[in-house]
Design a protein that fits this description.
TIM Barrel; 10-stranded parallel β-sheet; 13 helices; about 15% strand; 2 domains; single chain
Length: about 350
């Protein structure tokens, strides 16, 4: 990935010390090693960091071989299914954090809507739309550092009603959570909590200074203690090195994250990263493939920036990933749902786990 901060060592894969030309960590030459690695992954032997970096460093001539190998892993765990998620921005703006990529942060001048948590009626109507769009999971997202008592109670109240009426899975993204809050969400019927690591531990201070990587790790541990599934991923294209992307993927593997949303930075005017846009569609595909190799059995979702960065290569992304958002994102637009349905159908895939739509 052509990050403006990349060095020569991030542009060319260098054989690690101790590896010989016959080892799997050597420079790949398009000789079928990708498929060999896929077979090893399916046999229970995970790839290491040097192999993951080799995927990101591979040239475009090797991309289709990499995607074919990653597709083998995807088919093993998920077949030809695609799970749809629907995102509801339940509270917008008004955030005291300084996340440099986010249009809702205190350091953003982006002209976005700003409102407190939505009413019961609006949250329930969002669930109706999620069900109508063939989504299985309804993601309720609020801005802010952490939820206040009113916001927690609103989630506790609406979740049982949504599940009873529509049969949707609920993923809550509420910011930093303590053990008690995570337990309350579990008791209310929330299925999983989203809290993204976003990047590597080393690079985190470059994208946010009001909380730390460890703060995010603590929230994920609290969620796991409460018996909830973890939804955690990150953002690519914020000026990080390829090694940072690899470290993020391995951090998620160590947490045994069930669902990984992978975002590609949509550089929004008014944010500190408004000029940070350098990814190509091939960069995005290599990143998705690497995440599939590192986290073979985790649900992998192509998240924000899909339409902007993958463009005409979106279908290739679903050879590796098995989930997408249908509809809009938090403060940016997605493509019309019908285009997603056609893409899935054209690939010979099928939408799985659809919610109930009351007659």
């Amino acid at each position: 990935m052509l990050s403006p901060h990349a060095t020569d060592s991030t542009q060319t894969f260098v054989r690690p010390e101790g590896c010989t030309e016959h080892d799997s960590c050597t420079t790949v030459t398009g000789d079928g090693r990708w498929m060999q690695w896929a077979a090893e992954v399916l046999a229970g032997k995970g790839i290491d960091r040097s192999q993951a970096l080799a995927i990101l460093n591979a040239n475009d001539d090797q991309l289709m071989d990499i995607l074919s190998a990653a597709n083998r892993i995807r088919l093993h765990y998920f077949g030809k299914t695609v799970q749809l998620y629907f995102l509801m921005n339940a509270k917008s703006g008004l955030c005291p954090e300084d996340c440099h990529y986010c249009s809702q942060s205190k350091v953003s001048d982006a002209p976005i809507p700003k409102y407190t948590i939505l009413s019961r009626e609006k949250l329930l109507d969002g669930a109706r739309v999620a069900a109508e769009r063939q989504s299985k999971t309804y993601c309720i997202v609020i801005s802010g550092r952490a939820p206040n008592e009113r916001e927690i109670k609103a989630i506790e109240t609406i979740v049982p009603e949504i599940k009873q009426k529509y049969g949707l899975n609920i993923c809550a993204c509420l910011g930093l959570l303590n053990e008690s809050q995570a337990q309350r969400l579990a008791a209310a019927g929330v299925d999983k909590v989203n809290h993204n690591l976003n990047t590597s531990r080393e690079y985190y201070e470059k994208i946010c200074t009001t909380h730390t990587f460890d703060d995010r790790m603590e929230t994920l541990r609290n969620v796991r203690k409460a018996g909830l599934q973890l939804c955690s991923g990150g953002i690519i294209g914020m000026g990080e090195r390829r090694e940072d992307i690899v470290e993020m993927a391995f951090s998620l593997r160590e947490l045994s994250v069930e669902s990984i949303p992978l975002n590609f930075l949509h550089a929004i005017d008014g944010t500190p990263m408004e000029q940070q846009e350098y990814l190509s569609p091939r960069d995005c595909l290599r990143a998705l493939a690497m995440f599939r190799f590192v986290n073979p059995s985790s649900e992998l979702r192509i998240a924000g920036g899909r339409e902007r960065h993958l463009r005409s290569l979106q279908p290739l992304g679903l050879l590796v990933a098995n989930s997408i958002f249908v509809g809009d994102y938090l403060t940016t637009q997605g493509q019309p749902p019908q285009e997603d349905y056609h893409m899935i159908q054209d690939l010979g895939y099928e939408i799985t786990g659809q919610a109930m739509v009351p007659e």
